[in-house]
Design goal:
The chain is α/β, with parallel strands linked by helices and 357 residues long. The protein is built from 12 helices and 15 strands. It is globular. The protein starts with a strand and ends with a helix.
């Protein structure tokens, strides 16, 4: 089987490449070649910027792929361009979307693939919904609960599947997924920033009372689910989320990280609404995703991929990440943006509490 990953060297796609190679697939990467140090032996390299349609078409000319996985589509026009590039040369186009597309606030804590797509807080999620709609052909309506400005992004399911586009697609929605080199938190994950702050004895902001439930998925577990859907005709026209079955409070997430570091975290609980007022760009990701308790029902991915069984607990995943940083000590650096935001939020919060008391 021949598969193409658009990207291939990122947090999720690197693990998916490993899994596909392990299964004996012929794997290609289509990217600009800016992270050659992350490329893996045995992968065919196609050099082009996916945003340059002519260059991408030239790079794949003469090739046919059983599956194409698009990790880098963030706007509907990206998917529209992909259809023109890959139509006729693949049997399956897999769009990597996001679990943050599900309705916020949720009407139930248990999320299935039938949960409506609607996120009035976070533009990233609304754009991912729009990406999905390019494939599914779903239309918006004037009664969308997300508000008039977002009518075209609301989820309305067709009553006749024959109306859907003929382009062979599968939609995959990861939630908070991490791999080596990541210390996941609610203010950033791609780096050592949260660990650095804890080791310095600095306060860390945790939204709400720290008891909302969150799901963190190791990339190697996600990869088993994703690669299991490739080259699978039964997955066409379907959407799946792929997450861990482990649910942790945000307090527990921070305590597990701190325990692995050998420190005691200085957690300060601050309401998400307050965080959003001080740092709106942080608030969007909290109110539209991380501060909302959800439990993902993985029954569907298990039906299609019986071998999907997440094995890496968060405690184990953090140990792996810290071991990776120990092997790359030059990457044990602070996150200036995280520090600036947390310090600003803490200062404003202390001022408010001081006035109240």
């Amino acid at each position: 089987m021949r598969v193409l990953f658009v990207g291939g060297t990122g947090n999720i796609s690197s693990a998916c490449t490993d899994e596909a190679l392990r299964r004996g697939y012929e794997v290609f990467h289509l990217n600009r070649g800016t992270h050659t140090e992350k490329e893996k032996p045995g992968v065919g390299l196609l050099r082009a910027d996916i945003r340059d349609a002519a260059a991408a078409k030239s790079a794949v000319r003469g090739l046919h792929f059983d599956s194409v996985v698009q990790f880098l589509a963030f706007r509907p026009e990206h998917v529209e361009a992909d259809i023109k590039i890959f139509d006729g040369i693949t049997d399956q186009y897999v769009l990597i979307s996001t679990c943050s597309a599900y309705r916020k606030p949720s009407l139930t804590p248990v999320i299935t693939e039938e949960t409506p797509l609607e996120n009035p807080y976070w533009e990233y999620s609304r754009l991912k919904i729009a990406c999905e709609r390019v494939l599914t052909g779903r239309a918006g309506s004037a009664t969308c609960e997300a508000g008039p400005a977002d009518d075209d992004l609301c989820d309305r399911r067709p009553t006749d599947r024959s109306q859907e586009p003929s382009f062979p697609y599968t939609i995959v929605r990861p939630s908070h997924t991490y791999d080596d080199g990541w210390i996941p938190g609610c203010f950033g994950s791609a780096g050592y920033g949260l660990a650095w702050r804890m080791l310095q004895g600095l306060e860390v902001v945790v939204p709400g009372d720290g008891q909302s439930l969150w799901t963190l998925t190791h990339a190697s577990d996600f990869a088993v689910g994703l690669v299991g859907l490739l080259c699978n005709p039964a997955a066409l026209g379907e959407a799946f989320h792929i997450t861990s079955d482990e649910h942790l409070t945000w307090d527990a997430v921070h305590m597990i990280i701190a325990e692995a570091l050998g420190v005691r975290p200085k957690i300060v609980h601050i309401p998400s609404d307050f965080i959003a007022k001080v740092r709106p760009e942080r608030g969007a990701g909290l109110l539209g995703d991380k501060a909302v308790s959800v439990l993902f029902d993985n029954s569907k991915i298990r039906r299609f991929v019986p071998g999907f069984a997440p094995r890496v607990s968060f405690a184990e995943g953090i140990r792996r990440s810290l071991a990776w940083f120990d092997a790359h000590p030059e990457r044990k650096t602070p996150d200036p943006a995280m520090n600036a935001d947390m310090d600003a939020i803490l200062e404003r919060w202390r001022g408010l509490v001081g006035r109240i008391s």
